[in-house]
């Protein structure tokens, strides 16, 4: 059973933050516990350079602020990638960085993936990790070519017993339609 980020879990995370670094920090950041205070001041400066508050303007933005602030403070170079001064070759643009989170409260999530599609292109820069903006429905010619949604859909369909592992893309499209599997944009 997957654990959701409920209020008890969020409280536990916040308590750990007040006492120091969380036990699972390796998943969030480099270990900076032995660093000098000057380095921590630099991390704080980088965090301020991100200008996160305008990014959290959605319905649940305030709920995510403490979680995201803690994580970005732990990343010394976060501002390079999601700050307003990030280079134009960084996708997605800063305004889209946390859009996927703004529609859902932290306690309603099973897990959150922060990152970038490994094949960055402007059309993929939706602000939602692995969301393939080119694939509108299962009949879309891009479905077999967009690796991430293709693999995610295939794995989910195999686990749910909708398809067999060795089914071709053409058959997969037909099966998804027949079983009324929601369209790719509805997965995100």
TrEMBL record:
UniProt region (Disordered), positions on chain: 1-47
Biased composition, class Basic and acidic residues, residue ranges: 31-47
Gene3D superfamilies listed in its UniProt record: Uracil-DNA glycosylase-like domain
Superkingdom of the source species: Eukaryota
Record InterPro entries: Uracil-DNA_glycosylase-like_sf (IPR036895)
Name this polypeptide is given: Uncharacterized protein
